[in-house]
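Q&A FORM
Asked by: J.P.
Topic: structure of DUF2961 domain-containing protein

PROVIDED:
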Amino acid sequence: MKLVKIKFTFFILFALTLSASAQEPGGEMFDLAKIKSGIKNQRISSTDPTGGNRDHLEPFKPGEKRTIATIEGTGIINHIWITIAPPPGELSRNDIILRMYWDGNDYPSVESPIGPFFGQGWDERYNYASFPLSAGPENGTGMSSYFVMPFEKGARIEIENQTDKTINAFYFYVDYFEMGSLPENMGRFHAWYNHNLTPALPEGETEWALTGAQRPNKGGEQNYVFVETKGKGHFVGVNYYVHSPTPMWYGEGDDMWFIDGEKTPSLIGTGTEDFFNTSWCPKEPFSHPYFGYPRVNNDIGWLGRTHVYRFFINDPIFFEREVKGTIEHGHNNNLTLDLATVAYWYQDEAAKLPAAPSKAQRKPKPFINHMDMHRWRDAWRKAKGNDPRLWGNE
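REPLIED BY: S.T.
REPLY: Here is the structure written out as tokens.
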């Protein structure tokens, strides 16, 4: 009987604990109902100062820089919206650079081409929707950010036109909270664009062991790097833009994380699509607040361009002193891929970013097409003795 009472008492306590946990208020909608003090809404925008309808900045010439927002004091940017004319195809958003400076620093803690920052790869336009970022409608031209961006000693946002054309119209909102002081432990927002044409192995592109034996990769020395910084903070997301020059699956690469000076990665994944919460070599559009495929290739196999994103909203990757986030380009880095990424994270102080890729380095690679494949076939035929009945899989 005593044992039954003990079990019953334990059950009641357990049920009460679950009930209290379930009823405990929390989350964004709960916080939205809280009445707050000491916060003033502010906005900087491209509105026509005359009260007319030319609500955009005057044209940016090629090579010109503009500071679109200078904010004094303490606050939090909570919303940015931008649209630009001409649209992609006429004016490349891959060559319009966005920079953000926090706390009076003369170096940016955000530096990225404006298209890739908001989820628009290469010089393309397509609708994109995630938890913190979106592009569209109309067809990816309205770009928005809801990332929280705190600052204590001022903030500045700069745009540089690195295209060879004039930006005819630049529309924007920068909304922020003006505050007497920041809440405790507010980090500084960072975003960094990287780009690399990754090299194949000396023995070739041996993916799936089709053209040679595969070797292991435990150290990750040749991995593509999408974030590398020193300080205390947490990683919160990445936009990943891959252009594959081959129909072979590009995503056998594992993510590997080196946290606080590790020589061997402590977090290791099982494949690129797995890192992005998907499976089995997908090539279909998919959108979730935290992950998705807004742009997929429509070519043969996995030839062509694919954009994947993953935001670590409920599962940030924490670091105390430094972090290096990497991913293989094919298993053991055996594939030549045109890779670009924008990584997003917070850390305790506004940090200086690694060097930014140049305009020439980030230039999109051309598409491989049927004529290229026919040339490949011609070279293959000749290497096989030029038998007039060669089919293609000999």
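FOLLOW-UP: The chain has two domains: 39-179, 188-375.
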